Amino acid sequence: MEPYLPWLFLQFLLLLGISSAAQAQVNIPLGSSLKPEGPNSHWLSSYGDFAFGFRQLEGNTSSYLLAVWIDTIPEKTVVWYAKSISNGEGSPVQVPSSSVLKLTTDGLLSLRNPAGDEVWSPRIPHVAYARMLDTGNFMLVDADGTAKWETFDFPADTLLPTQVLAVGQEDKVLRSRLIATDYENGRFLLAVQPDGNLVFYPVAEPSTNRYLPYWASNTVGNGLQLVFNETGRIYFTLKNGTQINITWAGGSTMDDFFNRATLDPDGVFRQYVYPKSRKVRNLWISQWTVVSSIPQDICLAIEANAGSGTCGFNSYCSFDGIKNQRSCLCPQRYKFFDDERKYKGCRPDFVPQSCDLNEAAALAQFEMTLVNSVDWPLSDYEEYSDIDETVCRRLCVIDCFCATAVFQASTNTCWKKRLPLSNGYMAESIDRVVLIKVPRGNNTQSQLSSASSKWKEDKKYWILGSSVLLNVLLISILLVGTYCGISITSKKKLQSSQSSGSSILPLKIFTYNELDKATSGFRDVLGSGASGTVYKGQLQDEHATSIAVKKIEKLQQETEEFMVEVQTIGRTFHRNLVRLLGLCNEGTHKMLVYEFMTNGSLSEFLFGDARPYWSLRVQVALGVARGLLYLHEECNTQIIHCDIKPQNILLDDNFMAKIADFGLAKLLRANQTQTNTGIRGTRGYVAPEWFKNIGITSKVDVYSFGVILLELVCCRRNVELEIADEERSILTYWANDCYRCGRIGLLVEGDDEANFNIKKAERFVAVSLWCLQEEPTMRPTMLKVIQMLDGAVEIPTPPDPSSFISSLQ
Hints:
The chain is of the alpha+beta class.
């Protein structure tokens, strides 16, 4: 029987191939049909990544959605669903289990319910076949191969790579869902308008009425199309070819990641990635990860006289920058109409004040409870000046129309507000107090005040944090030595760890010979520092990937204590961070492998013979700020870089700034607020607290950024002792003097572009002076820095520091 075994095995493989082909049809012929239940419920793309067909609604076993979803991940994420109106603003098509979708022999795609009534059809007749593409696009195709209808032309709430929204296509809009599990049209809409403007709107659900936009590209007359390209970039193209970045992710190609951009139920347009190829699965958590979002803080983005704002009426919004999530909350003695659908807002749990009460009765029955860090900026109907908080409280209590009063101590101003309250939000920067009218007899501490205090404490932990006291990436070399290649025993332990599903260092392990060959014997030196030398190289892979290899020459620690922290750094992913690709540990050979940046360092770019364009300097400043914001507040484990300087900021092909060299980085643990350590960093960029016996926080990076921002404005180094004019030798001192005297022009003397943009230059100098405050708590967070740089918030005059601590000490 043995001679027949290979033949039987071949027949078995052929049967497998036939079975797979039956599921992953390239062309779907006329006469094909789908039913919600049974084996023929969907059609797959050629590689099986995407499916078109029926998806059962969550929590409803008898109702199905006609949809496209990603079929090769456990989440089966829906990326398109049919709507009753083709312009994306109709209701989602939901049908019972006995319905049938058929591609008729006449070439018409038609969905009919159990009674035989047609409930949905593209109404495109006489097509030759249908096709589910591996891009996620389902198409009805003519005999000559021309697409006559495709799902990419009628998006729901999601865009996919290769999808385009163009001017003149008014039916191409994104409409958010109500909630994640309810596909009915939600409260937000993204549209490319006929006038060339890309706009995000709040919508009066369930209608199509649009309130004032909360974000716009401001490209009226110039906008052309919104593009989601194959490399993961989302940008808006103008008629002159200019590309405006809409999200800040990139490099997440279709080969390596599933990639989607969704207008979520909270109004935020988020870009997500999910590991797809084998080479990134070991480097990435198998879940959807947010890599970019707009707007940055949805709680502050929406403010219009009509509509409830981000959350519902009488609610307020709190935004968690770390998790990139919005929460809707009710004030004390108010509760949600619907705990699951919080967008419906809050209502008082007490009988409102009657207008029949006289003044004495009102004061006896009601009181004002204090709330901090929350504001409802609208709904004012009366304003008082030159009064104190006590009078403000009394004026609201005796007024039956008044539900809330807002008092600002700095101006002794009081505003009365009536219900419903709208556009409420919680923010650290609010300098007013809210007074909520509630019945007497409930004098326990305000739930809202407690929530506010907790939020402030949490914010303190986010910003201050603490960190380990060691050089984390250098430690990673030793960790790899522990887990890879030191002995057969360690290899077996690593294999055991992998098989058990435990979390290990998610980096590629290179051999010394691989890197020796890639760098041609370590010949091309890119630079050197305290911990080692960096060489240029090229991997022998299918993409001939260019790399930078850092040979570690000084090891500082030998411990496995920080495996989790090293893993976290290996998984950092942001367009403004240089990616750590892997490492090598063979005996005395300790090396880190990074992606290669073709345009070198910011130091070379900024301090060379030619002055860089002003627009590029602005781009670099914003890029560095966004990278630091990610490290401080957006990645899973907050990181202090500790050595931000021009040499550690690299530039890619498009002069996109990327923060590099985590040799001094410190990871912040949630249960710590600060850390004490020896002086680190580079002269000219070191924050004053390094020289004091106080804890180090993320504000040391903010200080260093302030120095770099001045250098970008002025195109010179912070410390230039050879300058004849001693007053100008230290840039931070001189810039402060120029700003105080109103002579910003001296800082950009001879720079025509900067002088043309003198208002922005002055704004950047003001931001830098805030960052350079000697007291760390007075420095802004990187989120606030970005808002000030963008002009999204007003910049108060920075205090004149009593001294700047020179790094020459």
